[in-house]
Amino acid sequence: MGVPTNDGTAIVENRSDQNNEAARQADLPHRSILFRWLLHDAPFIIMLILALAGLVFRLPVSYWIILIPIFGIISIVAGWSHFETRQAHLALVYSQALNWGALMLAVYLLYTNGVHGVLTSNADTLVMMILLALGTFVAGVRAKVWQICAVGAVLFLAVPGLGWLDQSPLLLTAATLVIITLGGFAWWVSEGYKDAGKPSHGPSIASDR
Q1: Residue of 43, 71, 184 whose CA lies nearest to 128
Q2: Where are the domains of the chain?
Q3: Which of 68, 173, 162, 64 is nearest to 122 (CA)?
Q4: What percent of the chain clears pLDDT 70, i.e. is strictly above it?
Q5: Residue 119 has pLDDT above 50, yes or no
Q6: What are phi and psi of 176, to 5 degrees?
Q7: Rounded Cα gap, residues 96 and 94, in angstroms
Q8: Cβ neighbours of residue 172 under 8 Å, at least 6 residues apart?
Q9: Secondary structure (H, E, C), the chain
Q10: How far apart are CA 186 and CA 180, in angstroms?
């Protein structure tokens, strides 16, 4: 009866270590999927929460003016990876600057020269929400980021919700949570398709005969 050599034992142990490492690597994406989603979509969630906070609490015009450059910076950063050349990056910056600059100009024209006296506090909130929704949607189209377009669409839909807010303040909050959850699910599905399309680099183990 033969005695197994040290080389054979080392090969078996090496294969076992490789299998354990492969199992840990396969487990890692599933354990960190929530963190990855939050890290990926956090800017868009912040955009949505900030805008809806202004709608819910009827914040003054100065709050919305502060949001405009914040949304512009997020749009540039989120869309940067969708363009490869330096010229395309400059075009992205120019287009976003024109978009949000035009929005700032519209706000200036609305709230100066006596026009502001015609609008009530509720009308202020509605006007700013509509302008921000329009600017956000256009920014998403130019940056090629569908999440920003989705934020703009949600802000448009939230404008009629202002009338329901006094009767059911939880309704808009619940709708926001549902939208965020659906966005996370859509991201998870898209990541699953990407992972499925990637070739496996794990160790191949020959079957024993």
Answers
A1: 71
A2: 37-190
A3: 162
A4: 54
A5: yes
A6: -65, -45
A7: 5
A8: 52, 55, 56, 158, 161, 164, 165
A9: CCCCCHHHHHHHHHHHHHHHHHHHHHHHHHHCHHHHHHHHHHHHHHHHHHHHHHHHCCCCHHHHHHHHHHHHHHHHHHHHCCCCCHHHHHHHHHHHHHHHHHHHHHHHHHCCCCCHHHCCHHHHHHHHHHHHHHHHHHHHHHHCCHHHHHHHHHHHHHHHHHHHHCCCHHHHHHHHHHHHHHHHHHHHHHHHHHHHHCCCCCCCCCCCC
A10: 10
pLDDT, tens only, 18-67: 555 555 555 545 546 666 767 778 899 899 889 988 887 888 889 999 99
The token pair that represents 130 in the structure block: 């509509």
Distance CA 162, CA 64 (A): 16
Amino acid identity, position 12: V
Q: Mean pLDDT, to the nearest integer, of 167-173?
A: 57
The residue type of 10 is: A
